[in-house]
Amino acid sequence: MSSSRYDQGMKVRRAVLGNEHVDRAEAAKTPFDEGFQNLITEGAWGTVWASEGISQRDRSMLTLALLAALGNFDEIPMHIRATARTGASKQDVIEAFQHVAIYAGVPRANHALKLAKQTYAEMEAEQAAD
């Protein structure tokens, strides 16, 4: 599939998540989930993440806070990794999760923070190995 929104979405997706992640996701795509993957690329990446209304840093913090607040923990490590490219600092992430604690509940923020700590530790270990 190729449309201007899809192409823009793929460009933003690669900029935020990195080529390795996107290449793995694309290689895993099948006819069964191709339509869904296209929807994500066009909608999430080609529309929402491509918007210039707020910075990538702010969008990262919002995304992490929303994922934690709604209990969608599976994508938190991916978006923690993305902070290396969006400019959201560890302190930014802590601030976002503090908001989650107050407005959505301490257990969700606590679990999100645990995932963030694990992911940052993995990232640091990977960086040290390089």
From TrEMBL:
GO MF term set: 4-carboxymuconolactone decarboxylase activity; peroxiredoxin activity
InterPro entries, sorted: 4CMD/NDH-1_regulator (IPR052512), AhpD-like (IPR029032), CMD-like (IPR003779), Decarb_PcaC (IPR012788)
Family matches, as Pfam families: CMD
EC top class, as a word: lyase
SUPFAM superfamilies assigned to the protein according to its UniProt record, in alphabetical order: AhpD-like
Residue stretches making up the Carboxymuconolactone decarboxylase-like domain: 36-117
Enzyme Commission (EC) number: 4.1.1.44
Record keywords: Lyase
NCBIfam families membership: decarb_PcaC
Identification of the protein by name: 4-carboxymuconolactone decarboxylase
Source organism: Parasedimentitalea maritima
Classification of source organism: Bacteria, Pseudomonadati, Pseudomonadota, Alphaproteobacteria, Rhodobacterales
Gene designation per UniProt: pcaC
